[in-house]
Amino acid sequence: MGAERIAATHALLEPYVRRTPVAHVAGADFGLAAETIVLKLELLQHAGSFKARGAFANLLLRDVPAAGVAAASGGNHGAAVAFAAQRRGIPAHVFVPTISSPAKVARIRGYGAEVHVEGERYADALALAEDWIAAHGALGVHAYDGIETLLGAGTTARELESQAGDLDTLLVAVGGGGLIGGAAAWYRGRVRLIGVEPFAAPTLSHALAAGEPVDAPAGGIAADSLAPRRVGALMFPLAQRFVERVILVEDDEIVAAQRALWDVLRVVVEPGGAAAFAALLAGRYQPAPGERIGILLCGGNTTAVDFNR
């Protein structure tokens, strides 16, 4: 999976996804020494996250049976699949664990999908979804471990490069690894690629240490988006080759990043979407003088701000 296929997928997706904006901000705005930070506001994507790209890629590049599509999700992927299926007039069943946020479950239902809230964690929902797919003949749309899903995620990086030009470093939150895998496939070493995970869900950290995807803890504040238990098999060789390292952040550092993004930019970012920025804000990633840093704010499905007050 290379840049040519990602570029072709990007062209295919253009009528269906938003070209999300970037914000060039001074590090001093956040009390940081970094001179230039480029934030890709993918939380403004359809269905509230970058996942819409992979969802549409699956529905456009694969044959969809009459039974429609089915997916397991912590929330964002399910919302994306439901949105894409609604736009394409396709039935959708989405399986989510009980830890999924009410905001995400409500969004999935709002797009017309049949929602099954079962199992404690993503892995439980995935097993249930696979059983349902086998029984009903639906097309399974994997949240991160599918070629089309990775191609769609890779279009985020392609779009960022066209908007931001040359970056020295790109910080990307990691759950199952679809987003960083897509970015790795697009950039292929042309930027320093840094993964960011919560200490409570170190999936890629454990995989890189073991030399293969292995089970890891699956908890923490971002468990509904960054805690699938293990990274995908398809992205792992890309991570081994192109991801320089993985940084771990604490839950309270993620919350601090959410608050800072709201205070400075007035954007509401969910915990998983703020994790990459947390690595910079907390000082766990120390930029060199003059370094141009890109950060993917990959999701915004949260009810953290109460507009009724």
Characterization of the model:
The protein has a 6-stranded mixed sheet with strand order 1-2-10-7-8-9, with helices on both faces. Strands 5-4-3-6 form a 4-stranded parallel sheet, sandwiched between helices. It folds into 2 domains: 193 residues, Rossmann fold, CATH 3.40.50.1100; 90 residues, Rossmann fold (3-Layer(aba) Sandwich). Helices cover 43% and strands 17% of the residues. The model has no long low-confidence stretch (mean pLDDT 93). The longest helix is centred in the middle third of the chain and has 18 residues. The chain is of the alpha/beta class and 309 residues long. The chain starts with a helix and ends in a 12-residue tail after the last strand. The protein is built from 12 helices and 10 strands.
